[in-house]
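Cross-check.
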Amino acid sequence: MCIAAIRRTPRHHRPTHYLLIIQSYSLLVQTGVDKYEAGVFEVGGHKWRLSLYPQGNQKMNVNDHISLYLEIIDTEEYPLGWEVNASFKLFVFDKIRDKFLTVQDADGGIKRFHDMKTEWGFTKFLTLDCFRLPCSGYLVNDCCIFGAEVFVHEHKGKREILSMIKEPANRFMIWKIDKFSTLNKVAYNSQLFTVEDLKWRLMIYPKGISNGEVKAFSFFLYSVDCVQPDSKIYAEFKMRVKDQCNFKHVEKAGKHWFSTSSSDWGYSQFMPLTDLLDPCQGFLVNDTLILEVEIIVMSNVK
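Predicted model, tokenized:
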């Protein structure tokens, strides 16, 4: 819990967002409750509640003060990496002077609520001696009133969440090409494949690309999603030409940051065309070629 410099000032007008009125406060204490969680209220599109430790927060080794905190709740459906920035004031009512004692951080700073820190407040909100003292006005006829004001500061900046995914769902892309010998275009693209929520195509040069010595079968992986100037997708993958008879597949590995300027990656010399077309090798069976790309690791940005 936060133990920071605290400013306490009185004011006349009541808290804007929430009041917790406790009658028979002594009976609440006698129940032995360590922490009382008040009802839910909504501010800035988020749900909040007060958490009151009537005898102090024992987990923080405090037993001579009331502890009072503000907690954000019902965040299970919030997106990964969520955060809510808010400043707040907590109150206790002085019935004798008809004023609310306002308790806040001395610097009035904004607190960042997130999945690892959903609660902020004051471990030493008010000393128990002062609270119980009749002339203080906080506990009158065994009744007391606490309150809260919350001011949510919207974060309108752009946020990016980069995830590195190992062995993603649907990671195998298999392209079965029939009537391979009839292909007469320079290059061909496969159907669209979706791995996680990213889209890919396989690309081949069926007649090969000459390197001046031998013609070789060319095989590439193409990222369909790299269309925006700042798009960047990382992938580690294995590319295979399947041996349909002997299962001695030709396999090569690759890794690449795909971008608008570099949206495909692969091998112009993946394997000699003579091997691919050799019927004894088992790559072409009934004039059908089977290609496969397996994504091992990929990035995803949201």
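The helical segments are 25-30, 128-132, 273-277. The longest strand covers residues 288-301. Passed to J.P. for a second look.
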